[in-house]
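User: Some background: our group keeps a shared notebook of sequences we're curious about, and every so often someone picks one and asks for a predicted structure to add to the entry. Today it's my turn. The entry only has the sequence so far, pasted here. Could you supply the structure so I can complete it?
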Amino acid sequence: MVVHRLAELLGESAPAKPSPKEALQIVSRALRISDRSDSIDQLKWALEPGFTIPPGAGREYLVAILLGLQAYYDMLSRGVSLEDARYVLPQSIKTRIVFTMNARELLEVFLPLRMCSRAQWEIRILAWSVRSLLVKVHPVLWRYAGPRCVRVDQLARRRLYSLEDYIEARVKPVIERCPEGVPRDSIHACLASNLKLVYGEC
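Assistant: Of course. Here's the predicted structure to add to the notebook entry:
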C-alpha cells in the first residue's frame, strides 16, 4: 500500500504486486522529492498506511522512513530473505498485535497505567480505545475504569465515580496529587489532554 501511495504521489502507477526492484525505484524517486516544501503532508499521507507517524513528525523523520524502505527493497532486490531484510525497516512499521488479559488485569494494571498522560502516546491511544470498547460490552463495570489518578481518587473517597464524572468536572479529586505528581487542580486538564490526543476533542 505504501509503495502504491508513493507512486500515486509521484504521478505514476505501480503494478498490483511490484517487484522489489520496482518498489526500490519508486521509493528512490520519492526520496528525491522529499526536500520540496510541499512534500511533508503528502509523504505523511503516503507512509501512514504502513508506519506509525508521531504527532509533530517532521521531514527528517519521513526521510528516515524512506531511507529504511530504500534499504529494505534494495536488499530484497539482491536476494536477501524477507526475514533478514526486515531488520532494516524503521521500528515505527505498523504491526498487528493480539493481547489477552483478564478483567482484573485490565482494571487494576493495564488501563490505570496506560491511560495516564505519562504513558507513551501510542499505547495511551490503544488503552483509551480498549476502555471505550469495554464500556460498550459492560457499561456498569467499565465506566469506572480509568487512569491511576481516577482509580486512586476513587479509593481515597471510598466511592466510585465514573471516568466521565472526572472528565466533565462533575466531581473534583480529593487527592492532593496523582501518583505521577500532577496536582489536584491540574488533573482535569491532564484528562482533557488525553481526550484531545485520542479523540481530537476537549
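Suggested note for the entry: The mean pLDDT is 90. Residues 103-199 form one domain.
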